[in-house]
Design brief:
With 234 residues, this protein is α/β, with parallel strands linked by helices. The chain has a single domain, classed as Rossmann fold. Helix content is 30%, strand content 19%. The strands form 2 sheets. A 7-stranded mixed beta sheet has the order 5-4-3-6-7-9-8, with helices on both faces. Helix 5 packs parallel to helix 6. The longest helix has 15 residues. It is globular, with a radius of gyration of 17 Å. S-adenosylmethionine binds next to helix 1.
Length: 234
């Protein structure tokens, strides 16, 4: 039931993706600008940032949290030995399985990030973790729990790449006519998710045991003026 006092819209990727054409992969994950899918250059910039941040190598076993429909993930398959993508959306995972899964090495699984991280029976097989445009949908307590459980259970994971984080300190670059309420900026159930400052992400990551380094996409990347990436190392 919609909350009558709610002054802003809640958002579900699963519900949204079901309204898109089955092959509108960029629309399903809202990788669009004013409704138009982003260009191939933008996708290639994302892939380059992930590969270089994670220093992906042929022997790596990559885990992705909040992988969506796998449209970006498939571009990483050639750079790692094995890959598992997990996402909470039943529909987006079904799209990923149908179009991009390549068993036995490149697999998708429907699971919420917290549940998956705590229940994976063989966590030690993974060497690197990716969460692109997904971390902002984890409330603080979940985000902290996920980072801590990776640190403790996924003992061979050396690095985590967290990409496309909405920057609380630069939210005014996006909301040019005035900022929404603090409540909206801190709500994981909006289309953009939680706006976090680098200091906020650092607190979560360092508290969970990780060292953090921040980076920015090139100026030609749409969103570079209000988003950043974080690389976590042991
Ligand atoms: C903007 S999409 C990004 C998808 C993909 N990483 C990409 O960059 O194309 C955000 C994704 O986060 C997923 N998500 C949201 N909350 C989640 C949770 N608690 N656990 C796992 N996935 C979640 C959504 O289902 C959606 O697929």
């Amino acid at each position: 039931m919609p909350d009558k006092n709610q002054s802003y819209k809640k958002f579900s990727y699963d519900a949204h993706a079901r309204t898109c054409a089955p092959d509108d992969f960029l629309g399903q994950t809202r990788r669009t600008v004013q409704g138009v899918p982003v260009s191939e250059d933008q996708i290639q910039m994302i892939i380059a940032a992930i590969k270089s941040g994670l220093e992906l190598a042929p022997a790596d076993v990559l885990l992705e949290l909040a992988c969506g429909n796998g449209y970006l993930s498939r571009l990483l398959f050639g750079y790692c030995q094995d890959y598992l993508g997990t996402d909470i959306s039943e529909y987006l995972v079904s799209v990923a399985k149908k179009n991009f899964e390549a068993l036995p090495h490149y697999q998708f699984l429907m699971s919420g990030a917290t549940e998956y991280i705590n229940l994976e029976p063989r966590p030690e097989r993974f060497t690197k973790v990716l969460c692109y445009a997904g971390f902002q949908y984890f409330p603080d307590e979940q985000a902290y729990g996920i980072l801590k459980a990776i640190f403790e259970r996924f003992r061979n994971v050396r690095t985590i790449f967290i990409g496309n984080i909405p920057d609380r300190d630069r939210a005014a670059n996006f909301y040019k006519t005035g900022l929404p309420s603090e409540e909206e900026l801190s709500d994981s159930n909006t289309s953009i998710g939680i706006w976090r400052s680098m200091a906020g992400v650092e607190r979560l990551a360092v508290g969970a045991g990780w060292q953090v380094q921040f980076s920015f996409m090139p100026a030609e990347f749409n969103g570079s003026h209000y988003r950043y990436d974080a690389l976590l190392r042991r």
